[in-house]
Design brief:
Elements (H helix, E strand, L loop, with lengths): L1 H9 L14 H8 L2 H9 L14 H8 L2 H9 L14 H7 L3 H9 L14 H7 L3 H9 L14 H8 L3
Helix pairs in contact: 2-3, 2-4, 4-5, 4-6, 5-7, 6-7, 6-8, 8-9, 8-10
Length: about 170
Amino acid sequence: RIRTAKALIEKGVDVNSTSKGGATSLMIASERGELEVVKLLVEHQANVNAKSKNGTTPIISGAAGGHENVVAYLLDKGAKLHMAIKNGSTALMVAAERGHLKTVKVLMRQGANVQARSKRGWTPLMVAAAGGHTEITRLFLDEGAKWDVKSKAGWTALKVALKLGKK
């Protein structure tokens, strides 16, 4: 993929062009974990903070794919940590939901907010508990996540784990 991307960029392809949904090449490469392509795009002025129509950013895409190396690189290149998709989920929430422990650790080392709230009032702890991701749940608790916070529907992390949590 890197050779093809280089050839296209050399011919003047716009690295910040978007699909109808607003996805950029950097978002796609980030979600796929294509670090060398990500680096190439950033070197050619790809916007590390671009947002798709649903609010996805390259760092959220990398977190969704569980690519901690891509996430760390994007953060180093100025990607904003606290951006969220339309439902209010941050990169930390997306990584936690999908069980990507290493990515969660990278995000937390960079200052990701363990107390962040989605539009439904869910926290990263609730998302991890709902996914049955015990190690991530423990990590959040060890980092001071509040276990007694309630979502807008009145759910706590424990209720979420019992009702929705995977075995």
